């Protein structure tokens, strides 16, 4: 709880203070370090550097603030045999109004008997004399890394935990003092396996890390139950429970867990940093296309203030890694496409193409959805081949050094480039995809090419046959109109404040982006502008597969790559506006202010900051927007 009790959402004053401190640091950085640091960036000047740093700092403060707790119980008890019982004693106060169970993963995924089942099937009983017992709780469907809590009113001195299966796990068990925000002292009364590898004391050895009223900051939520679990398994060399996506992004999460330990902050940190890296990377793409500090800043502010970008970067899933790799491959391909290939040394061209292939390989090894944008890269490349051919045809009948060079160069340039494309865009992705599984114990027999093939086929069958439904599923036409957010998390605290997280686009991005996309399409049809064509290709190849090919249950976050490319269409339309009406800049500044104000106003919905329920419900502007 913040000390700013009169503020509508108490978490935000701390965030505003953090922004002020970052702004002060930015000023000092600009004054003493940036003045001579732009020579290596070519067309970038000091204004570009200052702009991209300022936007990155603004976004980083919002992304990292209350990202997650660094304190999280990790030592996990595993029964030595099925039916094992442990008796706890409350030696002082015995009156409790809550019991808490948290489970993580031990090493029993390695058992031939099968995967672990956590606290499912665990039974908690109470007794006054350790003889006559009354069952008070049989938790079911507990989620890994999420607290299971029983609200109750009991005064038992002894508590018995019984496991039905050797595949159960319990990380921490605690009892909350009646009417107080503290845990009762608890100790082991009977443990017949106290000398085993996993004594019952592991369930009560981290009571200081237990959170009495846990929120998303203190535990996992939504799909973190899958991705964090896989990351922990990789970090600890455990046979994996399951995985339905490539694991390169998960390996990055696993590296952070290996280096810094398991906690909500750590398992989200890598994705949050990827979201921050996207800011300068996206700025570079816009600057490459438009060579304008204003347009680059305008478009990057739209990205930094987008609801979906913030929400998706703050949850421990694969989307941030996938998106930063997609932007990287697009940037490298655009740099290649904007070369003068008849003048540029062929070696430099191939190196640039190799970087595009490497980035694409990494993107696909993170998540298969990158294949959609990879089709966009192919179209951009084929467009370049067509332009080569058109220049070649136009050069015939002309004299001069350039025309003669084109006539001499076209055929060998095309043939050699196509040959290298097989290496960079077919063989390299296959190699990197297979090698990305090296750290991953997906089988009990270790890594092999056949294991990678089998895992890939398993994932394909899973996604192609999935028939699950979800109350917050949505389709592509919902995404472009911002009609149906996906609701990740909700918690109503005892202080009357609500924490909720929903994933959806900033409405001004979604609605303005749709209009600007149509303007860009009309501009290309009218003027055949190459930038407009490249933007249309990136947008359409990101969205059309979801409309035409994917029949499974989909969600708003699947629009993430498309929404980022839609911002490029906004930049193109704004460029056209400024060409037609140079005096429109004040209106664009006003738009940016309104855009960022809405970003701040919606932070309790997109970042989970505590706010009154009335504030949350007041943001439900449309029937499909449900936040609390």
Summarize the structure.
By secondary structure, this protein is of the alpha+beta class. Helix content is 52%, strand content 10%. The chain is built from 19 helices and 11 strands.
Sequence-ordered SSE layout with sheet pairings:
Blueprint lengths: L11 H21 L13 H19 L20 E5 L6 E7 L20 E5 L6 E4 L10 E7 L3 E5 L9 E6 L9 E5 L32 H13 L11 H13 L3 H27 L2 H12 L2 H7 L5 H19 L8 H21 L3 H26 L5 H35 L13 H17 L10 H6 L4 E7 L4 E7 L3 H21 L2 H19 L11 H21 L4 H17 L1 H4 L4 E2 H6 L10
Q: Poorly predicted ranges (pLDDT <50, ≥5 residues)?
A: 1-7, 32-42
- Structural class designation: alpha+beta
Write down how many β-strands occur, each being a DSSP E stretch of 2 or more residues.
11
Strand composition percent = 5-15%
Overall number of structural domains: 2
Radius of gyration: 28 Å
The main β sheet shows up as:
5 strands, antiparallel
Question: Given the C-alpha coordinates, what overall shape results?
Answer: elongated
Order of helices and strands: HHEEEEEEEEHHHHHHHHHHHEEHHHHHEH
Strand line-up in the sheet with most strands:
4-3-6-1-8
């Amino acid at each position: 709880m913040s000390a700013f009790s009169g503020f509508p959402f108490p978490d935000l004053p701390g965030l505003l203070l953090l922004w002020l401190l970052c702004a002060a640091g930015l000023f000092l950085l600009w004054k003493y370090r940036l003045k001579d640091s732009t020579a290596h960036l070519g067309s970038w000047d000091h204004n570009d550097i200052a702009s991209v740093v300022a936007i990155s700092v603004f976004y980083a403060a919002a992304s990292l603030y209350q990202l997650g707790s660094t304190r999280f119980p990790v030592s996990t008890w595993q029964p030595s045999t099925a039916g094992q019982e442990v008796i706890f004693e409350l030696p002082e106060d015995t009156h409790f109004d809550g019991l808490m169970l948290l489970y993580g993963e031990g090493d029993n995924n390695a058992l031939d008997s099968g995967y672990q089942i956590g606290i499912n099937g665990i039974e908690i009983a109470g007794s006054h004399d350790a003889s006559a017992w009354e069952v008070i709780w049989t938790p079911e469907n507990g989620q890994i890394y999420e607290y299971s809590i029983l609200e109750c009113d009991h005064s038992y001195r002894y508590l018995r935990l019984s496991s039905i299966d050797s595949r159960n796990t319990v990380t921490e068990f605690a009892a909350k003092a009646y009417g107080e925000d503290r845990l009762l002292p608890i100790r082991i009364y009977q443990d017949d396996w106290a000398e085993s590898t996993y004594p019952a004391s592991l369930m009560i050895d981290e009571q200081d890390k237990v959170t009495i009223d846990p929120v998303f900051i203190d535990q996992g939520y939504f799909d973190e139950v899958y991705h964090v679990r896989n990351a922990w398994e990789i970090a600890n060399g455990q046979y994996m429970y399951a995985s339905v996506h490539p694991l390169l992004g998960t390996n990055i999460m696993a590296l952070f867990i290996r280096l810094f330990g398991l906690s909500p902050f750590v398992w989200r940190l890598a994705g949050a940093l990827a979201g921050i890296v996207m800011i300068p990377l996206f700025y570079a793409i816009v600057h490459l296309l438009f060579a304008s500090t204003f347009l680059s800043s305008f478009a990057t502010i739209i990205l930094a203030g987008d609801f979906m970008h913030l929400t998706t970067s703050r949850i421990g899933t694969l989307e941030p890694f996938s998106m930063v790799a997609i932007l990287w491959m697009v940037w490298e391909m655009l740099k290649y496409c904007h070369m003068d290939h008849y003048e540029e040394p062929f070696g430099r061209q191939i190196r640039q193409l190799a970087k595009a292939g490497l980035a694409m390989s990494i993107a696909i090894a993170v998540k298969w959805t990158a294949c959609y944008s990879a089709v966009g890269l192919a179209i951009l490349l084929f467009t370049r081949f067509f332009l080569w051919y058109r220049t070649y045809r136009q050069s015939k009948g002309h004299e001069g050094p350039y025309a003669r060079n084109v006539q001499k160069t076209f055929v060998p340039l095309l043939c050699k480039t196509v040959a290298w494309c097989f290496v960079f865009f077919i063989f390299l992705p296959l190699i990197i995809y297979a090698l990305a599984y090296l750290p991953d114990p997906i089988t009990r027999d270790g890594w092999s090419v056949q294991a990678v093939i089998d895992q890939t086929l398993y994932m394909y069958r899973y996604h192609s046959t999935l028939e699950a439904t979800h109350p917050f599923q949505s389709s592509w036409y919902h995404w472009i109109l911002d009609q149906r957010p996906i609701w990740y998390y909700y918690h109503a605290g005892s202080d009357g404040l609500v924490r909720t997280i929903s994933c959806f686009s900033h409405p001004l991005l979604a609605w303005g982006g749709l209009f600007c996309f149509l303007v860009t399409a009309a501009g290309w049809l009218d003027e055949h502008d190459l930038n407009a064509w490249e933007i249309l290709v990136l947008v359409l190849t990101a969205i059309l597969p979801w409309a035409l090919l994917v029949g499974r249950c989909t969600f708003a976050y699947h629009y993430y790559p498309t929404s980022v490319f839609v911002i490029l269409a906004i930049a193109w339309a704004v460029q056209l506006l400024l060409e037609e009406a140079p005096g429109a800049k004040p209106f664009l500044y006003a738009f940016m202010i309104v855009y960022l104000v809405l970003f701040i106003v919606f932070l309790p919905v997109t970042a989970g900051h505590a706010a009154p329920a009335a504030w949350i419900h007041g943001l439900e502007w449309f029937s499909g927007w449900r936040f609390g």
